[in-house]
């Protein structure tokens, strides 16, 4: 039997968030729960489904990647943001970043191909449910 | 991430997806970017294990509060204005010579945010989540905590609805100390159960 992965930290504690996007993903989840979009039980279930997938890093460094995936799935299930919408807008943000001179704030308006950032009006969105 | 040129910006794919979600959610009126910044600031700088240390110190100094904390931790903690925002219930588990308590979330990473802030990386990582239940004594030894063989270890598995706070034993030589001074002896790890309260210097 192989030696188990150590459970204790190797050195000093890391900061709560390693990168700004992790803090933003966390805060969006808290804000959406406050808004009543989902219960915390629903959230824990979504997050747990992601973190228990095989291949999770044993040092926990990919934790917020799972967090983001769980948030995307939940928002898709709730009909708030479909994967197609998010894919297209994320690509638009990457193009916008690329087109923004270094040192300037990255704005979505800087996307040189804005039409591609928005998919058709129906995909990923739900109509009124009455 | 590698840069093959230095004149423009890059967003890594995760950052770009987060921005995309923010754009959609803001347009739909579901989030307010200013409120997001406030939440980040709160969890980065305002809520942390200092809150929990004050709860523990008060329990050490005030037997009435300790009894309340044991009976109804949710209300006792709320009385100090550390309210959870996920509607979770709190349970305080008290260490003794006979029993040491250890908290884990095997499911994901449920944690008493209102009193401890956000969990450390190791708490969220698979080795701790899987091994704390199977081999708590071995895990504690990795944290440098060797308990006497006669001390039982009780492991509490957190859920979205119920989170645990370990109340470590009060170190000797602290009689008459103020709550503030006592709180300095209570580390985050002591309230998870992977450490004991610090001995007075």
Automatic annotation (TrEMBL), chain A:
It holds the Pfam family NHase_beta_N. InterPro entries: CN_hydtase_beta-like_N, CN_hydtase_beta_C, Elect_transpt_acc-like_dom_sf, Nitrile_Hydratase_acc_put. Residues 101-130 are annotated as: Disordered. Residues 13-97 form the Nitrile hydratase beta subunit-like N-terminal domain. Coiled coil: none annotated. This is Nitrile hydratase accessory protein. The lineage of its organism: Bacteria, Pseudomonadati, Pseudomonadota, Alphaproteobacteria, Hyphomicrobiales.
TrEMBL record, chain B:
This is nitrile hydratase. Keywords: Iron, Lyase, Metal-binding. InterPro entries: CN_Hdrase_a/SCN_Hdrase_g_sf, CN_Hdrtase_a/SCN_Hdrlase_g, CN_Hdrtase_asu/SCN_Hdrlase_gsu, Nitrile_hydratase_asu. Its EC number is 4.2.1.84. Belongs to the nitrile hydratase subunit alpha family. It holds the Pfam family NHase_alpha. The keyword Metal-binding applies. It comes from Mesorhizobium helmanticense. It is an enzyme of class 4 (lyase).
């Amino acid at each position: 039997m192989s030696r188990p992965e150590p459970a204790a930290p190797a050195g000093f504690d890391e900061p709560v968030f390693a990168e700004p996007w992790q803090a933003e993903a966390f805060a969006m989840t808290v804000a959406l729960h406050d808004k009543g979009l989902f219960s915390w039980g629903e959230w824990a279930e979504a997050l747990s489904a992601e973190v228990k997938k095989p291949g999770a890093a044993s040092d926990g460094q990919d934790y917020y990647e799972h967090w983001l995936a769980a948030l995307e799935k939940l928002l898709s299930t709730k009909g708030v943001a479909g994967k197609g919408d998010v894919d297209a807008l994320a690509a638009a943000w990457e193009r916008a970043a690329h087109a923004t001179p270094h040192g300037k704030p990255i704005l979505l308006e800087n996307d040189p191909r804005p039409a591609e950032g928005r998919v058709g009006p129906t995909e990923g969105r739900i109509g009124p449910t009455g | 991430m590698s840069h093959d040129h230095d004149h423009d910006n890059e967003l890594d794919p995760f950052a770009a997806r987060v921005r995309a979600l923010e754009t959609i959610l803001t347009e739909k009126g579901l989030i307010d970017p200013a409120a997001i910044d406030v939440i980040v600031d709160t969890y980065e700088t305002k809520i942390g294990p200092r809150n929990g240390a004050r709860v523990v110190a008060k329990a050490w100094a005030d037997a009435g509060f300790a009894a309340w904390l044991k009976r109804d931790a949710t209300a006792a903690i709320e009385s100090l204005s550390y309210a959870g925002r996920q509607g979770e219930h709190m349970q305080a588990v008290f260490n003794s010579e006979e029993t040491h308590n250890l908290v884990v979330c095997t499911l994901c990473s449920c944690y008493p945010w209102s009193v401890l802030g956000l969990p450390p990386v190791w708490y969220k990582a698979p080795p701790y989540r899987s091994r704390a239940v199977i081999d708590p004594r071995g895990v504690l030894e990795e944290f440098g905590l060797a308990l006497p063989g006669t001390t039982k270890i009780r492991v509490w598995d957190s859920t979205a609805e119920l989170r645990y706070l370990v109340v470590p034993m009060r170190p000797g030589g602290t009689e008459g100390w103020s709550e503030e001074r006592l709180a300095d002896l209570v580390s985050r790890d002591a309230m998870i159960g992977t450490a004991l309260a610090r001995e007075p210097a």
